[in-house]
Amino acid sequence: MTIPDWPFHTTQAGDALREIFSAMGGDCVLDDRGLTLTGSGRILGIDIDLGEVGELTPGIAAVAALAESESVLRGVAHLRLHETDRLAALTREINALGGDVTETEDGLRIRPRPLHGGVFHTYEDHRLATAGAVLGLAVKDLEVEDIATTGKTMPDFPELWHGMLAGRG
């Protein structure tokens, strides 16, 4: 997948995805076309301090729940104080799908398990909604409770997401 117009230099937390997804077994290339992410067919677990990019934790947790080995996400205890307690919510929602997530003092420990469909509750939190959408790419019959909550940061997320899935975006 290529994300056009990805900046060569940015202070946005999302730029850390290049390094994170590479460590998880993907290949990330940034060139004039944009950022191209290529999967290998395998997702590797990761042990990482996300303290500087805590807002990425829900999405990384979703990907880690699909990995073939354990992941430890550290440095994000402050996520307990966001729109919802994001660590508790991620633990509850991934476990409800058959996952094996436990909270640590400052993050999450995610052990791979086969996941099944169900409702992924969003707690009126846009980051939880996008984490559910990511899981829905790989987990059959997963329904995100309230995808409209993504409107906080990206009002056109549902349309863009459906367009991407349809091969338009």
TrEMBL record:
Amino-acid biosynthesis is among the record's keywords: yes
This protein's UniProt keywords: Amino-acid biosynthesis, Aromatic amino acid biosynthesis, Cytoplasm, Transferase
Residue ranges annotated for the Enolpyruvate transferase domain, each copy included: 2-159
Record SUPFAM superfamilies: EPT/RTPC-like (SSF55205)
Gene Ontology biological process terms from the UniProt entry: amino acid biosynthetic process; aromatic amino acid family biosynthetic process; chorismate biosynthetic process
Keyword Chloroplast applies: no
Pfam family, one: EPSP_synthase
PROSITE patterns found in the cross-reference section: EPSP_SYNTHASE_2
Leader peptide range in chain numbering: none
InterPro entries associated with the record: Enolpyruvate_Tfrase_dom, Enolpyruvate_Tfrase_sf, EPSP_synthase_CS, RNA3'P_cycl/enolpyr_Trfase_a/b
GO molecular function: 3-phosphoshikimate 1-carboxyvinyltransferase activity
Similarity comment text for this entry: Belongs to the EPSP synthase family.
Name of the protein described by the UniProt record: 3-phosphoshikimate 1-carboxyvinyltransferase
UniProt organism field: Streptomyces xiamenensis
